[in-house]
Amino acid sequence: AIQKTGLKDAYGADFLIGTAISNHTLETQNSELLGLIDREFNTITAENCMKSGEIQPSQGNWDWALADRFINFGVEHKKTIVGHALVWHSQVPGDFFVDANDNQISRDELIRRMDTHIQTLMERYQGKVSIWDVVNEAIDEDQGWRQSPWYEIFGSAEYMERAFHLAHEMEPDAHLLYNDYNMHNPGKRSFLVDVIRDYKRRGVPMNAIGLQGHVGLDFPNLTEFERSIEAYAAEGMRIHITEMDVDALPVAWEHTGAEISALEEYAEELDPYRDGLPAAIEQQLTDRYVEMFEMFIRHRNKIDRVTTWGTYDGESWKNDFPVQGRTNYPLLFDRSRQRKPAYYAVADLGSQT
Ligand code: G3I
């Protein structure tokens, strides 16, 4: 018999379980994979196709093809649809911050472009997207606001509140998220708590925080992660776990930036399990998923959604980060799209609650 229930059914409708849909899946319209997604998840996020560099690859030139497919799939299958992301410093079209002569645009022009981008995109899918990642990754590690072109050209972080006001005008009932990674970081937490208080005082319509949840087997410290869930919720924010995955390879977390080029020389060590994932690592991966979901369930009343960043190991961004061509194992379905031990453990937890 065809199985119709999946992970989503082990949790309730008040605790959504989601996945991110890749461009590749939308391009190929792989019906087996889309069927699996339909069965297992009740909320979907666009992994890439709604980012500004993809959907408006140059000023005024919109490419709706994949996003339309994504939205149509969600509407047809009655999924809660997440729009990702309206304002981000990454995956921005090459000409976004410059004029025809390649000079940096003015603050007024940036406002015009930002407003047009948000309004055009949100208008097209009005009434269909109930959760928006309005601003993504605007806060730096321990240093306050990220010094991105948004910040530099605006001359302040006001671009962020402007984006929230606009998003609220366009979709008054939507969950409007600020979304970021490394949310266990106490410096980032206290900075964001101050932002939330300031926004609340001044009526900036941000109503939820997205903790991405890209973790490793023993990074980060989950006590700190949990403190962040509690701290944002205590300020009245709904909590969304927006991009969860568990990096199973040992070196990924300790190396960033300049060190990545050095790591490329040791590519073999970057793929230590090329002969197969050892049972002990598979177990650690399962345990990590369990620890995370136990924490989420403890805070069930604060958390609206947990989304994994992709469906199966073969299509995860973790195979290309921090260097390309790795074989990573971060998700709940393996390369043959079969349920992993972590899947069954997470499903069991859900059905016990
Ligand atoms: O579409 C092109 C394709 O035409 C080309 O042949 C290929 C060659 O490299 O690149 C393709 O684009 C890639 C795109 O993913 C689609 O696969 C980009 O190079 C690649 O940079 C891009 O990576 C995405 C990354 O964001 C970009 O920053 C990942 O898939 C995506 O998972 C990742 O997601 C982010 C969230 O949006 C925000 N939070 C962190 C998270 C992980 O970095």
UniProtKB/TrEMBL annotation:
GO terms for molecular function: endo-1,4-beta-xylanase activity. InterPro entries: GH (IPR017853), GH10 (IPR044846), GH10_dom (IPR001000), TAT_signal (IPR006311). The keyword Signal applies. Its EC number is 3.2.1.8. It catalyses: Endohydrolysis of (1->4)-beta-D-xylosidic linkages in xylans. One of its GO terms (biological process) is xylan catabolic process. Transmembrane segments: none annotated. Residues 1-349 form the GH10 domain. Gene3D superfamilies: Glycosidases. It is an enzyme of class 3 (hydrolase). It comes from the Bacteria. Keywords: Carbohydrate metabolism, Glycosidase, Hydrolase, Polysaccharide degradation, Signal, Xylan degradation. SMART domains: Glyco_10. Belongs to the glycosyl hydrolase 10 (cellulase F) family. This is Beta-xylanase. It comes from Natronospirillum operosum.
